[in-house]
Structures are given as structure tokens and as C-alpha cells.
# Entry
Amino acid sequence: MASVPTIRLNNGVEIPQLGFGVYQVPPEDTAEAVSAALEIGYRHIDTAEMYRNEKGVGKAVARSGIDRGEVFVTSKLNNGFHRRDDALRAFDQSLADLGFEYLDLFLIHWPLPGIDVDYVETWKAMEEIYASGRTRAIGVSNFKPHHLRRLFGGTEVRPAVNQIEVHPYLAQDDVRAFDADHEIVTEAWSPIAQGKVLGDPAVVAIAERLDRTPAQVVLRWHVQRGDVVFPKSVSPERMRENFALFDFELSRDDMATVTGLDRGERTGPDPDTFNHVAS
# Structure
């Protein structure tokens, strides 16, 4: 099986382009799911404080026998901890729950424009964490260009990553272009639109012609666009299917066909209006 390529972040850190996501994986099932992913060959795990399953991720990495330095692990700051001291404590708790001495990537999960804590101040706390050496890179999630411009004007460290909802029904070309222009890697969450795109006739036709699954076609589309992607599944069979993306390519016409499915349809909240603060 072909190896997973890496993408160089703006600080020189290499991130595997394909990862394994644990969003909505129950905490009690996380260690088993991540263990299966690591056994298949995944070396990039995406979690978050909000998912409440960091302990399972850490347990799986610890018992895998794989050197910690070979597994890229991302977590994200929970929405209730945007104040400086809260953010620092939350990061400490993430490390404790994971059982790690450091993270590879730590993100602000949402900009939360309607709350009384400015995400620029939150980012300054992220810069402190980065300066401490306890995370190899910092970034944001669900930030639009206007959110990023505000960060650029009031902070020192450029985000390494912007993790946003991207799939064929929400191509996000404007945000992706802005990220690229500013040396920010785009990561795609909800890469198959919670399964909605898998029955699209255009995707199915490409999959049948290439003797691939619709999920493989869509995930390969992400890869060829240059985004980082981390599909979630608790089925080892599906994990293996999602991992098999690097021994085929979509043609230029196929890429254009999938991109042309864009209709601005979100499966999750709009970052300009989402202000849910979870504890």
C-alpha cells in the first residue's frame, strides 16, 4: 500500500495528509477505534477537548508500541475556555488526559464572534503555549478570511492550519485560496458531508468507472486539492478503505466534475453565527 504523503506547515513541521478523526466516537470506544487505525497504518489522529475522548486517544497511542514521535496528534480548545488563564489550564488538561508531554497541533475550535472574549486574545494564549514548546504548531478551526485578518493584525504567530468544513457540496474555494495565499494549510472536516455526497450520481459514476468506492473518490478529490483530511469510522474495514487513496488518481475532468457539485451546503454551523459555549 502506498505511503501517506506529508505537507509542510509554515513553521517546517510535517503533517500527514491523511488522518483518522474521532469526532462522535464514544469515549468508551475511542481507544479500540484508534488502535485499529494505528494498526492499519494511520499516523495522524484528530481529536478535541469537546469530543471528550482524548483519554482514549492517548491510551491507544501508548499501548500501540509506536514511538510517540511517529504519531501526529491534534486537539482543540473547548469553547468555554477562551480567556487566557482558562485556555492555559485547558491545554494542560488536554496533555494530562492524553498522557503526552506535548501535542503536535493545537487549534482554537471556533471563533465564537458573539461571546465577550475576543478570539485575538485567545490566540495570544495559544502563542504562549506554542512558545513553551509543548505544542509543535498552533492553528485555528472554522475561521473565515475576515476572522484571520483580525488575527494577523493583532498577533505575532501566523496559524499553521485552518480546519474548516469542506466537501463537494461545500467546496470553500474562497477560504482555501485565502489560506494558501497566507501559507496556512487547509484541513477538511466533514469530508464526505456526513455521507450525503456518496450517493450523488456524478460521484457514483466516477467510482464505478475507476472500480473504487464513492468515499474513496471523494477523499481522493480532497487529497488532490492539497487539503489534509481525516475521515472518521469505527469499522476497521471502512478505515482500510479510507486509507487506500494513494494508488490511484482522478483525472482533471473528474476533479472538475466533483468540484462542480458545490452548492454552498453546510452540514454544520456557520462560524459567523455559531456561539455555543460548552463546558
Residues 92 and 134 are 9 Å apart (CA to CA). The mean pLDDT is 96. DSSP finds ten helices and ten strands in the chain. The radius of gyration is 18 Å.
